[in-house]
Amino acid sequence: MKIFGSFCLLAAVCLAPLIAQADDKRIVLIAGKPSHGPGEHEHRAGVLLFQKCLANTPGIKVYVYTNGWPANSDQLDGAATIVIYSDGGEGHPALQDDHLQRLAKLMNQGTGLVCLHYAVEPTMEHGEKEFLDWIGGCFEINRSVNPHWNADFKTFPDHPITRGLKPFNMRDEWYFNMRFRDGMQGVQPILAAFPPPETMQRADGPHEGNPAVREAVKRGEPQTLAWAFERPDGGRGFGFTGGHFHKNWADDNLRKLVLNAILWTAKVEVPPDGVNSVVTPADMAANLDAK
After folding, report:
1. How many domains does the chain have?
2. Is 35 a domain residue?
3. What is the DSSP letter of 133?
4. What pLDDT does 6 receive?
5. Which pLDDT tens digit goes with each residue over 32-56?
6. Rounded to 5 degrees, what angle do the CA atoms 248, 88, 194 make?
7. What is the pLDDT confidence band of residue 22, given thresholds at 50, 70 and 90?
8. Shortest CA distance to 49 belongs to which of 263, 291, 290, 288?
9. Exposed site from 8, 40, 124, 277, fewest CB < 10 Å?
10. How far apart are CA 228 and CA 237, in angstroms?
11. pLDDT value at residue 23
C-alpha cells in the first residue's frame, strides 16, 4: 500500500506538466511573404519576436507559420486566436483560395483574430464585410489613408489591452480614417491620436488622401489607430494600424500593446502590468528577410 501510494504521488508529479500542456491555449501567428525594403514589413521577424516574448507566458502555446498561409489550413483548428501580420489588399493571405471560409468556421467557434498593419486591409469586394464582423474595423481604399507620421499617445482607456502601458510617441505608417462598424458597436478604441496637417500634403488617391479625410484633419478629430472588438457571439478581435518599421518593436510599450492584445483575443487573462518582455539588439536583428 505504501509503495502504491508513492507510485501514485510520483505519477501525479510526472504527469502534471503533461496535463497543463494539454490545457494550453493554441495561439497561431501567421507571417506574410517578404515585401517592401529592409526593415519594413518584416512579418517573419516580427511574429518570431512575438513568439519569443510570449514564451514564458503560462497557459498558452504559440505556433508560427511564415511565408503566408499555412500549407495545411487544418493547422489553424483549435486556435484560441489567430494573428495575421502580412500585406493586404488582393495579396492578403486570408483572401486567397478558401481561406475566408476557413476563418469563418473558426470565428463561429469563438476564435479570436488579430490583424497587424497592412493585414487590416481586405478589399471592399472580398473580405471587408467579414473583417467588420470579425475585428470591427478595416482599411477601406478611397476612405482610409496611410501617411508616415509621429503619433503621440498620452492617455489610454481602461481595458486589459492597455494594462501596463505608459504614454509614448512613435513614428510609423499609422493608417487612419478607418471603416468601422455602424455606430462603433462593439468597438473600443485603444490607441488614438491627432494627425498633424502634414499628413494631408499628398495628392488624393486610393491610399493617399480624399476630401473627407482632409476635412476631418482640419477639424482636429482624433483618429483611432488600434482598437478592440467584442463580437456578439463572444469572440474577440483586435486591429492595429502601425507595424511598418521593424525597429519599432524594440519599444516596450508598442510591443506590450500587441502582446496584451494577443492574450486578450485568446481569452487569456492579461497580467495586471501587461506582458513584460525584454528584447536585445540581437533579437531585433534576428530572422530579418533577405531583401
Report:
1. 1
2. yes
3. H
4. 38
5. 999 999 999 999 999 999 999 999 9
6. 50
7. low
8. 288
9. 8
10. 6
11. 83
Query: Tell me, what amino acid is at 102?
Result: R
Residue 2 in domain: no
Per the structure block, which three cell numbers stand in for 203? 495628392
What would the grid cell of residue 183 be? Answer: 455606430
Q: Say which residues have a Cβ less than 8 Å from residue 241's Cβ, sequence separation at least 6.
A: 117, 120, 139, 173, 174, 175, 176, 178, 225, 226
Q: Write down the residue that cell numbers 493554441 correspond to.
A: 26
Residue 290 domain-assigned (yes or no): no
Q: Which domain holds residue 76?
A: 24-285
3-state helix, strand, coil in the chain (%, to 5): 35, 25, 40
Question: Exposure string (b/e) for 195-234, b if CB count within 10 Å is 16 or more?
Answer: beeebbeeeeeebebbeebbebbeeeeebbbbbbbbbeee
249-278 pLDDT, tens digit per residue, is 999 999 999 999 999 999 999 999 999 999
- Pick the closest to residue 222 from 200, 191, 184 (CA basis): 191
- CATH of residue 134's domain is 3.40.50.880
Q: Half-sphere exposure of 271 toward its Cβ, with a 13 Å CA cutoff?
A: 15
